[in-house]
Amino acid sequence: MIDxxxxxxxxxxxxxxxxxxxxxxxxxxxxxxxxxxxGYLFTILVFRWAGSDGYGVFEMGFxxxxxxxxxxxxxxxSAIVKYVSAYVVEKNFGKVVxxxxxxxxxxxxxxxxxxxILYFSADSLANFFGSSELDLAFIGMAYIIPQFAxxxxxxxxxxxxxxxxxxSLLQNGSLMILAVVFFYIYKGDPATGWxxxxxxxxxxxxxxxxxxxxxxxxxxxxxxxxxxxxxDFGSVFRTAIPMLISGSLxxxxxxxxxxxVGYFMSDADVGLYRFVFKMATLITFSQFAxxxxxxxxISGFSAKSDVKGLRSIIHQIAWIxxxxxxxxxxxxxxxxxxxxxxxxxxxxxxxxxxLQVLAIGQVVNALCGPVMYTLNMSGYEKVSQRIMxxxxxxxFVANLILIPEMGILGAAIATSASMVLWNVxxxxxxxxxxxxxxxxxxxxxxxx
Length: 448
What we know:
Helices cover about 85% and strands about 0% of the residues. The radius of gyration is 22 Å and the shape is globular. Its main location: membrane.
């Protein structure tokens, strides 16, 4: 038995693909842990100093920011990972330059338009949600939209180049550290949700400047100072639009609960729900790190029609997700009161059952593996689009019915049920298309 274990470990050390995944994801995981800690520190500081009302105001503004920036990017941030990875493999460096310049121009133009729309409709949106304090949050986020959209495009470009150190530095770890610092420096007395919005915006501005420095540096090193070359941008758009639709539908599913809690309930309820939701996402924080490395690798295997390599990387991710997510899930399910009272402040009893329900959806998301990444990066964007469309509709209806009756617990049930559904369906589609089982199952049961 011991000999078999030693043999398995030896094979793992010799597996260059696995070592690349672990080395790269370990770096991203480090920054993800940093981001999680900084993000929760930011959440706790706003929650304690500005109250659940102030934190709810920030989260509603942040929701608007996330929705608009996803639409503003038109799916190009996802497509650019796929195409940049392929161009680098083919050594078509000029196409990488051209693709980035076109994508950045389009994203900047579209984001400016949407930022103006949010700015001028801030008062009307605040009245719609029944909160007089939301107008400043929406106005502040309108100023951040173009910078945030370009920051994410730059980060995804660096991920396509497999520059994971640069990519990691541009993630929430660095952003939330900056947000914590600026919130501490510039908060009022008492602190407000607007102070949190402003602090977040300052962090985005600093990282955007850093991201452009990284992009220019990588052009000189990775791309040999290549000049812009012709690229079929129409083909890129045809790939990006289904990804935009899938991403938008995923975002609708992710933020429908927050928007509806904001509509049917108070800012304080939004603050409590989002606080509990962020705690639940600790279960999948490692999955983000793994998937960040896996996405360009999946794209590369797909471009070479290497199903064996694709199967291998998905299996490896499944086991890593299991090892990293399951212990956190067990703690959250068995000791939810301790988790919330340790992390939060004030009355958090209303979120105990909510945390347990959300934890179920998160652990299923982790255990199913990178199924949506696999579909999107392998030419099956429309399949993932259809999955997300039907799931988003179910999520909307479920939130509409359950939140008025059950409050934030109803939002948690609707969100977790939707997350379980789309993961199960996507897992089945990956199996049907590639004959790959993405779940962490014993070695002898795998498809050979």
